[in-house]
Amino acid sequence: MDEPVAWLADAWAGRRQWRILDTDFGQGADFLACWRAWKGDARRPAMLHFVAFCASPPPSEELLRAATTPQLHPLAAELAGQWFGLTAGMHRFAFDGDRVLLTLFVGQVRDALRQQTFRADCVFLGRPDGTDNPTMGKALARHCRRGARLVAQVASDSLRRSLAEAGFAVQAGGDSSGGLQAVFDPAWEPRGPRPDADAEPGDCAVIGGGLAGAAVAASLARRGWRVTVLDAAQEPAAGASGLPVGLLAPHYSPDDSLLSRLSRSGVRMTMSQARMLLREGEDWAATGALEVRDLEDRRPLLADAAMQPWSREAEARHKELGRVPAGAAAIWHQQAAWIKPAALVRAWLATPGIAWQGGSRVRRIERADDCWRLEDANGATLAQATLVIAAAATGCVELLGGRIPVHPVRGQVTWSVQGSEGLPPFPLHGDGHFIAGVPTAHGPAWFCGSTFTPNESSLQARAEDQRFNLDRLARLAPPVAHAVSHAIASHALQDWTGVRCASIDRRPLLGEIEPGLWISTAMGSRGLTFAALCGELLAARVHGEPLPLERRVAQALDATR
Questions:
Q1: For the packed helices 258-277 and 527-543, what is the interaxial angle rounded to 10 degrees?
Q2: Global pTM?
Q3: If pLDDT is split at 50, 70 and 90, which confidence band does 112 have?
Q4: Is the predicted pLDDT of residue 4 greater than 70, yes or no?
Q5: How many CB atoms lie within 10 A of CB 543?
Q6: Can you name the residues that pair with 90 across neighbouring β-strands?
Q7: Which residues pair with 501 in a beta bridge?
Q8: pLDDT digit string (tens) for 148-198?
Q9: Which end of the chain is more exposed for a tag (fewer CB within 10 A), N or C?
């Protein structure tokens, strides 16, 4: 559909964002053309959203074939590199420093439209099943701002009537290709909520300098906000996000539970951020991970082919490299990595537009006319902002007057630089986890743990917790425990402790508490999985953007659930 791209330069000039709705992704030709047009336009909007639907995603080879000009080849290759694991539902892909966002829904168009609430600036109406449905015009009208332009490949009489009845001014006669063009301009004021007026970027304050706070700060800064991140500590990642190394892996369940779907969305987003911002081999490594299951757990894995790039039955070579018995029940997670959380926090906080304000313990949040005032224990003003996000883990309880049900969870990790030779080249997890080959100032190290003790906040290392970690390692992978036995016997072990913040159902809490006052916290032991996802979800809700998740899945994270 080359014709629509020609007029985009004038249409989106001077806009902060431009949002395209494409009802038929096909082989991705429209997306590639719009992305290319955006890259080459000096007057382009700061952010391009492209929301597309497809009943069945094409193979990555077809994406490459859709690149019909040399200028499109590198874009198609970049898209194909992220084109994996497209299960039914919503998927978010990010390009050009997260300024070009593709949101793809795998499923039927009408199902997909019900899962989004944003308003499009233009619509590409392709040939998917149901396009000619008499109610299609009404369904599209709910997702168009006044003045949105629609371009259709096919112009049937029923489609013309459907669009006209829904408030589209249909161009008489169509175009030379046999399609049609229309503008959404109803003679009446559309009924129902129409969140067209997204927030104008201004001053924002984020309370908390860990994964949750840094992620949302970066998401808002990319959208033009001037963000101040305040923390009681002098340096970022001083709390649970100071964990020396963490495991990023999708959650697997035979029934593909809500947590499994959320985790895949979060893992995809965090892996994209890591590739863009971190040094591979130093700050993180995309190694994959081996999940060792209970020997009695022989439930079959989901047969869906789209799940295979995520989680599948472990092969003999995975078990051999992981040093687990050949007969062990195990799952191989291809999209998994170890990451140093503090490195990711620092990378997010380096986003242009973010200012760090350490040594600033916020004790009160007070409304002051048209903004919020953040005060210390003496009543002195630490910052003022029109938008405030509380991301201070359990500190949010006091700040928000006990309105959020969270609790502390103490965790202790055991590690050493001794006995690091010949260990698995990827993390193991199941009943506990084991990560080896992590670069440290003292040499490559291995880590095991972590304990999970609810309602405790002590940071004092405990000998019994160290023994607990080592006992779990012996059960998880006996040959690995034997390989590091010298370090254990010589007492060359160290421990790290931290306190995480968790909700009752162990899902994050994200939402607007009062106008302009939001919360993003309770990541629990899955901060690496959820932080970037929650940051993007919060930014999308603030700006009325396309959501990175199906609406019903996003509601599972709402702080008011």
A1: 90
A2: 0.95
A3: confident
A4: no
A5: 22
A6: 105
A7: 408
A8: 999 998 778 888 999 999 999 998 655 555 678 999 999 998 875 555 457
A9: C
Amino acid occupying residue 450: S
Q: Rounded distance, CA 446 to CA 492, Å?
A: 12
33/20 Cα distance (integer angstroms): 12
Q: How far is 168 from 187, CA to CA, in rounded Å?
A: 9
pLDDT of residue 128: 46
Look at residues 83, 459, 531 and name the one whose alpha carbon lies nearest to residue 273.
531
**Domains of the chain, CATH where assigned:** 2-184 (3.40.50.150), 203-239+343-404+512-551 (3.50.50.60), 289-334+407-503 (3.30.9.10)
Residue type, 175: D
Output the CA torsion sign for 263, 265, 271, 276: negative
At how many degrees (to 10) do helices 211-221 and 341-349 cross? 30
Token output for 221: 């800064």
SS (H, E, C) 208-261: CCCHHHHHHHHHHHCCCCEEEEECCCCCCCCCHHHCCCEEECCCCCCCCCHHHH
How many angstroms separate the Cα of 376 from the Cα of each of 124, 238, 383, 397, 472?
51, 19, 10, 16, 43
Alpha helices in 393-492 (DSSP H): 395-399, 463-476, 478-483, 485-489
Ramachandran category for residue 297: left, alpha or beta (phi over 0 → left; psi -120 to 50 → alpha): beta
What is the sign of the dihedral through the CA atoms of 14, 17, 23 and 26?
positive
Report the side by side order of strands in the sheet with 381-385: 364-368, 371-375, 381-385
pLDDT tens string 379-428: 999 999 999 999 999 999 999 998 899 999 999 999 999 988 889 999 99
8 A C-beta contact, residue 430 and residue 291: yes
- Counted residue by residue, the chain has a size of 561
The amino acid present at 159, given as its one-letter code, is: L
C-alpha angle with apex 39: 34 to 42, nearest 5 degrees?
A: 115
pLDDT digits (tens, 9 = 90+) for 294-305: 766 666 777 789
428: its two tokens: 């193991």
Q: Collapsing DSSP states into helix, strand and coil, what is residue 481?
A: helix
